[in-house]
């Protein structure tokens, strides 16, 4: 019997740096927070009305574990149509956001001693979940390759760790924090390595509908038999608080992951599922208005920041700018963001919070109104200029 009062793996997990810094800066007077990845748009009215109707119709009972049948059917149809995929309703599990989808998926494929390859900088959630399930993580710094994991680098990393039992690789594209996405060619090259090495790919494509210059190409088109596709409504339909995500995958995997899912949460909130059904059937174009506005904000922020020396990764998707801190400022990203928050009253996230390759960078979320971004840009520029 161990000496620890609690699960030792849980004790080793820290509180999210992103959430903690957002909380820590909330009390600064007049702070403008460009910290969290949350759309500033409201959920579309037709979706809210569908949820109200579900309440009025007393849709307040448990749903089947994997979700109401009509929603699973609609989800398969929606993503098949949007991204040229080939899923059936039976290959869909409705989850409590993409977060639970990631947790259930990793729990389903990892055995103690398995290794998961995680390219960084990346939203860090995949790392603690892997470790809690007895797996280990190989972090791969992608900063020298334009913040994408190349097929060559993936093969190299696997070959450099011959004793690691590599079970899966994580992809997140368009990426949080960089906004960088992958071309079809890059994905097909990765898919070939993943197939040859008999790996799973946990492909988090929650931002797939928020792309600007490249049409999103899902790796599920190339290797559906090896792909665990994670998606949901938080970003595409401004539904973060509704907590609806989805897992789509091969049938043998879905038959197993639903066990993890049902033991985590039983099922997603029934009322939210009826709202999601409306989003999937009558909200296919809901993200277009948001995408157009995000594009304006992105272009504005890149232009303004470039004037004082920020160099940004190519943000082809999502709503983040991952920018190199100007040379005249502290290159320690924690020092920079704390000073910026206290002196200029603008809160952004340090790049180091996203793993190797992130120090010297900051993540700026432009999921805020243009008016807020204009004032934030003004303050940031004044702060940087005063460092000269």
TrEMBL record:
<protein>
    <recommendedName>
        <fullName>Aminotransferase</fullName>
        <ecNumber>2.6.1.-</ecNumber>
    </recommendedName>
</protein>
<dbReference type="GO" id="GO:0008483">
    <property type="term" value="F:transaminase activity"/>
</dbReference>
<dbReference type="InterPro" id="IPR015421">
    <property type="entry name" value="PyrdxlP-dep_Trfase_major"/>
</dbReference>
<dbReference type="InterPro" id="IPR050596">
    <property type="entry name" value="AspAT/PAT-like"/>
</dbReference>
<keyword id="KW-0808">Transferase</keyword>
<dbReference type="InterPro" id="IPR004838">
    <property type="entry name" value="NHTrfase_class1_PyrdxlP-BS"/>
</dbReference>
<keyword id="KW-0663">Pyridoxal phosphate</keyword>
<dbReference type="GO" id="GO:0030170">
    <property type="term" value="F:pyridoxal phosphate binding"/>
</dbReference>
<dbReference type="InterPro" id="IPR015422">
    <property type="entry name" value="PyrdxlP-dep_Trfase_small"/>
</dbReference>
<comment type="similarity">
    <text>Belongs to the class-I pyridoxal-phosphate-dependent aminotransferase family.</text>
</comment>
<keyword id="KW-0032">Aminotransferase</keyword>
<dbReference type="InterPro" id="IPR015424">
    <property type="entry name" value="PyrdxlP-dep_Trfase"/>
</dbReference>
<feature type="domain" description="Aminotransferase class I/classII large">
    <location>
        <begin position="31"/>
        <end position="380"/>
    </location>
</feature>
<dbReference type="InterPro" id="IPR004839">
    <property type="entry name" value="Aminotransferase_I/II_large"/>
</dbReference>
<dbReference type="GO" id="GO:0006520">
    <property type="term" value="P:amino acid metabolic process"/>
</dbReference>
<dbReference type="Pfam" id="PF00155">
    <property type="entry name" value="Aminotran_1_2"/>
</dbReference>
């Amino acid at each position: 019997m161990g000496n620890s009062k609690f699960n030792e793996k849980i004790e080793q997990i820290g509180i999210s740096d992103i959430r903690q810094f957002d909380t820590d800066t909330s009390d600064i007077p007049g702070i403008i927070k460009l910290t969290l990845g949350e759309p500033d748009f409201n959920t579309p009215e037709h979706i809210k009305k569908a949820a109200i109707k579900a309440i009025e119709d007393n849709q307040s009972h448990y749903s089947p574990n994997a979700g109401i049948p009509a929603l699973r059917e609609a989800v398969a149809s929606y993503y098949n149509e949007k991204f040229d995929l080939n899923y059936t309703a039976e290959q869909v599990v409705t989850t409590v956001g993409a977060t639970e989808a990631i947790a259930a998926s990793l729990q389903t494929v990892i055995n103690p001693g398995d290794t998961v390859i995680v390219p960084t900088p990346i939203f860090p959630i995949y790392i603690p979940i892997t470790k809690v399930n007895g797996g280990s993580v190989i972090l791969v710094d992608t900063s020298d390759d334009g913040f994408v994991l190349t097929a060559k680098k993936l093969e190299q990393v696997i070959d450099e760790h011959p004793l690691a039992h590599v079970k899966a690789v994580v992809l997140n594209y368009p990426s949080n924090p960089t906004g960088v996405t992958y071309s079809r060619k890059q994905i097909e090259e990765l898919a070939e390595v993943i197939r040859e090495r008999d790996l799973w790919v946990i492909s988090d494509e929650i931002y797939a509908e928020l792309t600007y210059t490249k049409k999103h190409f899902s790796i599920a088109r190339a290797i559906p038999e090896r792909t665990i596709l994670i998606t949901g409504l938080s970003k595409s339909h401004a539904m973060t608080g509704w907590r609806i995500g989805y897992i789509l995958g091969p049938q043998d995997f879905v038959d197993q992951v639903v066990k993890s899912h049902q033991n985590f949460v039983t099922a997603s909130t029934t009322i939210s599922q009826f709202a999601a059904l409306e989003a999937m059937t009558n909200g296919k174009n809901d993200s277009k208005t948001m995408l157009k506005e995000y594009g304006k904000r992105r272009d504005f922020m890149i232009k303004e920041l470039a004037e004082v020396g920020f160099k940004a990764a190519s943000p082809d998707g999502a709503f983040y700018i991952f920018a190199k801190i100007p040379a005249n400022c502290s290159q320690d990203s924690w020092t920079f963001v704390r000073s910026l928050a206290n002196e200029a009253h603008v809160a952004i996230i340090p790049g180091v919070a996203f793993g190797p390759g992130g120090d010297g960078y900051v993540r700026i979320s432009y999921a805020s109104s243009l008016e807020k971004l204009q004032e934030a840009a003004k303050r940031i520029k004044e702060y940087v200029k005063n460092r000269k």
